[in-house]
Amino acid sequence: MKLRHTLVPTLRNDPSDAETNSHRFLIRAGLIRSLASGVYSYLPLGLRVLRNIERIVREEMEKAGAVEVLLPSLHPAELWQESGRWDLYGDELMRLKDRHGRSFALGATHEEAITALVRDEVKSYKKLPLTLFQIQTKFRDERRPRYGLLRGREFVMKDAYSFDATPEGLDRSYAVMYEAYSAIFRRCGLTFRSVEADSGSIGGTDTHEFMALADIGEDTIVHCESCGYAANIELAESAGRAADADLPEPGLAAALTDAASATMPGQPQTADTPDVRTITQLTRFLGVEAREIIKSLALLADGRPYVVLVRGDRELNETKVKRLLGASVVEMMSEADIAGLLGSVPGFIGPVDLDPKVGIVADEEVRGMPTAVVGANAVDRHLTGVVPERHFPVGRYGDLRMASPGDACKRCGEPLQFAKGIEVGHVFKLGTKYSEALRATFLDEHGRSLPYIMGCYGIGVSRLLSAIVEQHHDEAGIVWPAAVAPYGVHLIVIQTKDAAQAELAERLYRELRNAGCEVLLDDRDERPGAKFADADLLGLPLRVTIGKRAADGIVECKPRSAAEPFELEADKLPGYAAALTGH
Predict the structure, then answer these.
(1) Across 239-357, where does the E strand assignment appear?
(2) Average pLDDT, stretch 259-288?
(3) pTM of the predicted structure, to 2 decimals
(4) In the predicted model, is pLDDT for residue 132 greater than 70?
(5) For the domain that residue 62 is a member of, what is the CATH number?
(6) pLDDT at position 197, please?
């Protein structure tokens, strides 16, 4: 392609709304343009990268035995109502009505649509296993679109769905997709980790996320370098901290006065704590450590009231609470709910003497606390000397805390590591969640009607484009891996009006293309400095400059990742370029 005849509107300055390196470079290099918040147009070079990523995805999916389909983007509400997700999915689902008043949604995901298709078309176990995939635009009404393509309202996604007759069959399909995903991300040049994850609104049991490591990632990855354990922060398990070994005994003696201990031994004591609402304030006021305090949080789980307990130096993990309680929706209580359901006030909530209708669940670290400070359910009051199970009951214990620096790996005891990541892929074992809801069944070899056992496998194709740039750039611009670069070779003519340079450029343009190289020829009547700046910004694997030695058949070559250029005989360029770019 000749640059004069395509649309590559590069910018010299960073866009004002760009928050990440990938966002600013994709805009500056003229690969994408914003049409509305979270909605982008792909310009010629951006579309070429997108198509290269799609090609890699298709090749690995087909190698894994998956077959491509294309499903509608417009879904009737009845289908989502069958699965129970029409109300559950929430405000992210873009809903609309046709002229007849019939409700539809723009496809945010396609579990319902694919299950309905297979339900109607596949009736026998003889057609199983079956894995279908598509590459298609998805729509989600994100509350806060950000980071360019990383969190948008319209995006390109590859989603695949496996249908098996047995759980063992699903295990095999899952393993095949897991390996295919690993191959896709390696071919795209990504540094990534696969981590245990929560299935969220998709549902299912076993699930893994594939995370591209990046400082701007919205997800935190917890991993152990020793045993290989890795999980999303929402699911990460951890053992205690080394510092916990020296917890004081009996725990809170410093918080109790001698007089109180003498008059009411073993009983909780009320402490006046005027305007002391936070853990930090409480540690200073009572002279205790945060780990000697129980933090009480008031939640509604599917409408039922709970007080959830974690140690004062810990943060609550609501995803773990949701899983422990088997709840669909977990939300913090309002101030009115706290008053009406608990008889308490924010900042002073505690587990002692609550209405039995209020469930109490606690993080497993609470079980081992000899005594603790808790809220007294009255303004400016706390209780000291409280003993879990003795002074309040706990209905259920579990790992309900966020893993944090200083924690040990629960599997091997070594220190856990923390990193940021961008989710680029997610695989789920759905089981029969959707096949049962939509009555999608097959006849097994004994003539019994059974629900399909399903898996779901998604890759954010357009998000991959941004994740690659986030990992592959320098201060001057993008540094594309050869497998996904929009073109392999960037030919620059220094003086377009110089006959020798123009003639050599045209010859090399033809020869490189004949050798299988994809070439972008900068034949613009521009200053050399502007052309070199654009070349660095666009980040193609090989820059070839045709300048003053054109008459001698000599060109200057500079791989994008190299520090210095070198001269090469023009006749040797096609072979060198093909080897460098993989063509």
Answers:
(1) 239-241, 269-272, 294-301, 304-311, 330-332
(2) 81
(3) 0.84
(4) yes
(5) 3.30.930.10
(6) 78
Query: Over the stretch 172-204, which tens digit does the pLDDT of each residue have?
Result: 999 999 999 999 999 999 999 999 876 554 445
The 3-state DSSP class for residue 341 equals helix
Does 70 score more than 70 pLDDT? yes
**Model confidence band, residue 205 (pLDDT cutoffs 50, 70, 90):** low
Same domain, 425 and 390: no
pLDDT for 244 equals 63
390 and 460 housed in the same domain: no
Contact between residue 56 and residue 188 where contact means Cβ atoms under 8 Å apart: yes
Domain extent at residue 117: 13-237+419-469
Q: Are the beta carbons of 504 and 570 closer than 8 angstroms?
A: yes
Specify the pLDDT at position 243. Answer: 57
DSSP string, 455-517: EEEEEEHHHHHHHHHHHSB-SSSB---TTT-S-SEEEEES-TT-HHHHHHHHHHHHHHHHTT-
* Residues 111, 430 contacting (CB under 8 angstroms): yes
Is residue 481 a part of any domain in this protein? no
Token pair for residue 328? 């669909």
CA distances from 43 to 153, 479, 492 (A): 18, 18, 21
Paired tokens of 94:
């873009």
Q: Which of 478, 375, 510, 563 is nearest to 20 (CA)?
A: 478
Q: The tokens of 454 are what?
A: 């399903």
Q: Is 281 helix (H, G, I), strand (E, B) or coil?
A: helix
Give CA–CA dist 176/171, Å, rounded.
Answer: 9
User: Would you call 294 exposed, middle or buried from its count of C-beta atoms within 10 A (0-12, 13-18, 19+)?
Assistant: buried
Residue 22 pLDDT > 70 = yes
112, part of any domain: yes
**Lowest mean pLDDT segment, chosen from 36-45, 253-262, 536-545:** 253-262
Whether the link from the prior residue into 356 is cis, omega within 30° of 0, is no
